[in-house]
Amino acid sequence: MYKVQTYAIARHAYYNEGKSQRQISRELGLNRRTISKMLKHSVPPGYERTQQVKDPKLSDYKAWIDEILESDKRVHRKQKHTAKRIYDRLREERSFTGSYSTVRTYVAKKSLKSREMFIPLSHEPGMAQADFGEAQVKINGQVCIAHFFVMQLPFSDAVFTKAYPSENTEAFMDGHQAAFSFFGGVPKRILYDNTVIAVKKILKDGVRQQTSSFIGLRSHFLFEEAFATVARGNEKGGVENLVGFVRRNFMVPIPEFESFDALNDYLDACCKKRQSTVVRGTQHTIEQRLSQESFLPLPLTPYEACRVQSGKITSQGLVRFQNNDYSVPTTLGQQKVWIKGFVDRVVIAFEDKIIAQHRRSYGQEEIVFNPLHYLKLLERKTGAYEQAAPLKGWNLPAVFQKVHDILYRKNGKEGRRQYIRILQFLENFSEAELQHAMEQSIQLAAVTEHAILHLLKRNKEKRPPNLSLVSHPTIPIVRVSSADLSIYSYRLLKSCGSQYYGSRA
Hints:
By secondary structure, the chain is of the alpha/beta class. Helices cover about 40% and strands about 15% of the residues.
C-alpha cells in the first residue's frame, strides 16, 4: 500500500497541475491503474506503510543520480536525462544490478521535490501582459500555423487575441492597436517577454536596447514598458498560461475558416463571450471588473501598424518586400520608392504619392502583379502581348476577349493597341462598368475605343448614348455638297430620240 504522500503527489499533479494519468504514471513509476485508483481517493483506502521501502541496491548511487539531475537544470530541456537514460548509464558506467523501476521511482520523486515554487502576484488596474502563441488552423481548406497575439489584463482577467499568418513586427503592432480598441483604452503599463520584435539586445546591466519600431509604438500610445527577467516566466503571471488557455478553449477542435478575417471575427466573439464569466476567487464578472480598469485614452490620431523601408523599382517594374516582388507603374522607370508593409497589404509610394497597393503575400519569392501597371508599356510593345506575364491569370469577362478579337480582325496590330488602350479605362472605371459598355458597343455595332469611352461616360452620367459622328470631335467630318440630278434627266430623255423629245416638248 502506498503512503498518503504519494496519493497527495498524484492528485495534486492531476487536479492542480493538469497532468495526464500517463505522465503521472511515468513520473512516479507506478501503473496507470494504480494512479487511476489514487485519483478516486484522497487517502489510501486500506493500510499504510509506516516505513519506507528500502532499496539497498540504489543507496550507493543516489548521490551520483542527484548530481546528474542538478546538472540537468543548466541544459536544454530536450537534452535532459530521462530515468531510462540514467538507468542505462548506471549499468554501463557503475555496474548497477538493480531494476529499472527502482531508478524510475527515485527520479520521479526527486523531480517533484525539486520543481520550482512561485510566489502569488498581485496586479493593479491598468496593467497588461502581452505575448504570442501558435496553433494549427485550417484557412480556405489548407492547414497552416496561425500566430496569435494575446493581451491580458490581470486585474480584470480580460483577454484579447488576434491571429496572423506570421509573427512579425507588423502583427505585433497591429495586435496592440486591435487590443486597445477592444478594451476601449490603453493600459498604463505592459509586461513583455524578451521578444526580438521589441528587444534588440539585453545589455550586461539588464537594460534592454529596444527596437525603433517598438519605441515608435510606445511613443504613439504613451504606455510604459516592462520586461520579464530572463528565465523567470512567473513574472509574467498568467499570460503564458493564457496562451495555452486560448489554444485549448478557442482553437480545439482545429478552427476552419475561409480567411484570417473570419477566424479573427470568431476569436473576437470568444473573447467577448468570456467576459460574462466569473473567475474563481472573484465575485464579479470579467466585464464588471473590466469597467474598473485604469486606462490611458486612445490617441486622436490614427496609428499605422506597418513596417517602413525604402526600395528601388527594377527594370521589370517590380519592388521587393520581404522576399516577394510587387508591381508598380512602369512609367516611373527605376526610381527609389518607400514601402509600407501592413499585415494584410503592401503600400508603395513615390515621393508623397501612393503609386501601388497590393494584398500582402506570405509566400517566398512570389510575384504579385497588377496588370494595369504594364498597359502603357504594352501599348508601345504590343509584340509582347501574348507572352506578358502580368496578364496571365487576369480573369476578365468573356466579352473582353470578344472585343479584342473584333478589333484585331479589323485592324491587326493597331486593333490590339486600341484594345490595350480600352483596358486602361479600368484605371477610372470598374470592371463591371467597362463590361457593360463593351456589351453595348457590340449591340450598337460600334466597337471602337471612342465609342466605348463615350458609353462609359454616358452610363456614368445616366444619360442615353449619342453615337452621331458630329458628337465626336476626334473623328474628322467630311462635308459633301448636294448633286444636281436634273442633268441626268436631260441626258436620259435625249437618249430616247430627238423625235420623241420634240413631241414631248
